[in-house]
Design brief:
Layout lengths: L1 H27 L10 H49 L13 H22 L2 E2 L2 E2 L11 E3 L5 E3 L2 E2 L10 E4 L6 E4 L12 E6 L4 E5 L2 E6 L6 H18 L13 E3 L8 E2 L9 H6 L3 E2 L19 E2 L4 H5 L12 H13 L5 H54 L3 H25 L4 H5 L1
Parallel strand pairs: 8-10
Antiparallel strand pairs: 1-2, 3-4, 4-5, 6-7, 7-11, 9-10, 13-14
């Protein structure tokens, strides 16, 4: 009877536990309460939740990009209207060779006002970023130098000259090494080539237009390279008979991994920047396209969304074959200066008027491109929302049970427990001790 009672107690506790589990399941409708209850279902649940969390991040990224793009579209439309007004018959379209300087004065004043408006609009911010700064959106992208030239991140939009000074890029394994010679040195280092090698003690030598920096093995850091250039380049240039007048070697800075640059020479140092490169640079955002990276650490363009909005791509850059600027701001300035002069002819000003019309056409194209991006983002949003719904349904299938099934199971376990209690009166027979009482 002791064995029977012990087994009965075990079975009763099992029935009670099953009733308790069914009661919890009927309350929260979860198929398991801890991973050990169902390891396979738990593993699938964690995977689905991870995918759902990633999808939420993608949607958050997309929402930020959409908001920024809408702000950019509004700004570009304002600039387009300004340029369209500048091309209207009331302003540039109404210029004739018979106009006097006094009759041209209102046009000059209005063109100057338009330039100021364009500069302000293109330095617009969204959140803590500048909309049209491209890859350098943390600072105002556009500024004007002392001569009235428009600069994009310190680069002259017409000539490509970098007012921040010359620079050299030494290709490397994981990342390139960039050497900045400082705006105080302007283009004084133009034409030189620089190479880094190991096996020395921070020495610098100059041969022809080549600069060789030898660093100690294991010490080829950007700090070592920077120190060697600041302290040894001046003496090396002087020893090679190179002019050093006006050079400030203390302004040289280094970014990147100098160790990767060892034994690899840079291209010629220059204070010219590729305007095409600035206009085409990308800033990539992960929207769930399967983000991938190249061997050099750069993003594979097809695996992410390019959210960059380089300002010079909208306003134009460089000069055409006749030496006329393609940039809206520069053109308005040139036209304004001509109209403000004592002598101006239509043959002189007409190329600039024609270029301004081309600039307006470019702005229209860029505005259409923003619209295409918005359409693409809208379709991506729909896709991500569908994925979110599918993941929710998948999570419900894996992690939860149907409420009706949970309630039926709870009632079944309740019936079983009651039956188990009733059965105990038949199983546990009276013992000798019961009779002795």
């Amino acid at each position: 009877m002791g064995m029977i009672a012990s087994q009965y107690k075990t079975r009763l506790n099992q029935s009670l536990k099953a009733l308790s589990d069914a009661n919890i399941r009927a309350t929260n409708y979860r198929s398991f309460n801890k991973p050990s209850d169902d390891p396979f279902a738990a593993a699938r649940t964690f995977q689905v939740r991870r995918e759902a969390e990633q999808n939420e991040n993608y949607q958050s990224n997309l929402s930020s990009v959409q908001s920024a793009l809408k702000s950019a579209e509004s700004t570009v439309q304002l600039v387009s209207e300004i340029v369209s007004n500048a091309n209207s018959t009331r302003i540039c379209g109404g210029i004739t060779g018979t106009m006097t300087k006094d009759t041209r004065a209102p046009i000059v004043k209005e063109l100057q006002s338009m330039r100021a408006s364009i500069l302000t609009d293109m330095n617009a911010k969204f959140s803590d970023q500048y909309l049209f700064g491209g890859a350098g959106s943390g600072a105002p992208p556009f500024s004007v130098d002392g001569d009235g030239n428009l600069l994009y991140r310190g680069v002259n939009v017409d000539t490509g000259v970098n007012t921040n000074g010359a620079s050299a890029v030494i290709p490397g394994g994981s990342s390139p090494t960039q050497i900045l010679f400082g705006k105080e040195n302007a283009g004084l280092f133009n034409g030189y080539m620089i190479a880094v090698q190991t096996g020395g003690a921070g020495s610098v030598s100059v041969s022809g237009s080549g600069i060789t920096v030898t660093l100690g093995a294991g010490h080829a850091t950007k700090g070592d390279l920077e120190e060697a250039l600041q302290n040894g380049l001046g003496a090396a240039l002087a020893a090679a008979g190179k002019p050093t007048e006006g050079m400030d070697f203390s302004k040289i800075t280094v970014a990147g991994n100098a160790e990767d640059a060892a034994a690899t020479a840079s291209a010629a140092i220059s204070d010219k920047v590729s305007l095409d490169g600035l206009a085409g640079e990308g800033v990539y955002v992960d929207l769930g396209f399967g983000l991938q990276f190249n061997a050099d650490g750069s993003v594979v363009p097809q695996s992410a969304y390019d959210a960059s909005l380089p300002g010079i791509a909208f306003l134009g850059y460089g000069m055409n074959g006749d030496g006329v600027p393609n940039n809206v701001y520069s053109l308005l300035g040139k036209i304004s200066d001509m109209l403000d002069s004592d002598n101006v002819s239509m043959s002189t000003i007409q190329p600039y008027l024609d270029s301004l019309k081309q600039a307006e056409s470019n702005l229209t194209t860029q505005t259409s491109a923003i619209g295409a991006k918005e359409t693409f983002l809208d379709s991506t949003q729909t896709y991500l929302e569908d994925v979110s719904e599918n993941l929710t349904a998948k999570d419900n299938d894996v992690e939860y049970v149907e409420p009706s099934d949970a309630i039926i199971d709870w009632m079944t376990q309740q019936f079983c427990y009651q039956a188990c209690l009733q059965m105990g009166t038949n199983i546990l027979q009276p013992t000798l001790m019961d009779f002795l009482k």
